[in-house]
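Appendix B. Worked example

We walk through a single record from start to finish. Start with the input: the chain for Pimeloyl-ACP methyl ester carboxylesterase, Phenylobacterium koreense, length 343.
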Amino acid sequence: MREPVNPDRRRLFCGVAMLGAAGALSAATSAISAPVSSPTWMMKQVEAGDLIVAYAEQGPANGAPVILLHGWPYDIHAFAEVAPILAAGGKRVIVPYLRGYGATRFRSAATPRNGQQAALAADVIALMDALSIRRAVIGGFDWGARTANIVAALWPERCQAMVSVSGYLIGSQQANQAPLPPEAELSWWYQFYFATERGRRGYEANREAFARLIWRTASPRWAFDEATFARSAAAFANPDHVEITIDNYRWRLGLTPGERRFDALEAKLAQAPDILVPAITLEGDANGAPHPAPAAYAGKFKGRYEHRTLSGGVGHNLPQEAPEAFARAILDVARWAAEPKTA
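Next comes the structure step. The output line below is what the pipeline stores for this chain.
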């Protein structure tokens, strides 16, 4: 299914508050209102598992929960135009900074700065527990899509439905040992760069320039402006950002072991579990980042499922480039999940 994208829609919600990551948040569960037009984008924080999670919230407190997960090198502002659409539809929208981003912090200096896939998924479950959210619709792209996949696959009782950009992204260290064709390996150049000490030091010294390059190559037709980039780039000043980023890519290649406490979860993920909850997968027609073909993962979705390809030059950061289409997918899967099941 191919959906056209209105190139003028990016100004539709220009009044949405966009709070930078700079500055520590005050006390747990405190709220800061942005001095902009309603609906207000709220920043909050809460102790959840290993983290003090900083997150944006919008919509009625008693609304059906929706959790939106960003990727690398992006941040919560990828959903700044998605959130008000969902809030207007009565949803309680939660958009957390992932570990290593924005004002999210580790509760202990002794906790490993681990970027493996199971750790990020466990963070989402801990956040839901901390906010007393039993079930939620979960959507994401890039790292956030993989995390949404994992929560849906391993904790279907917590995931009401799911929206995932680029489909099924669950992987394993063992599967990642298989070499790819040269063109595919070339597209993962930064993964191999990060495997070296030179790469770690290079990213530490040039994280904004690195992010700008990824934005341009992953979304070659997205004409983002400097203010848009600067809002998200502030999130990369997190003291754990480089370590989490490097560990994420090194773990994929089997260069770091991960934490033993996640071994059981990783063993399940290595089996490429099916996703049973209602799901919509999305892809842009101009995604310049490595991504699988929709036909390659369609069979992993066993519940009600639909794939949508967006036309009009939509790249990797699909929620920010095509917010109306992403929000529509969230509202559609939420409706599917609420429909009575037929025998």
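Two observations about the output. The CA atoms of residues 113 and 206 lie 20 Å apart. The longest helix spans residues 323-338.
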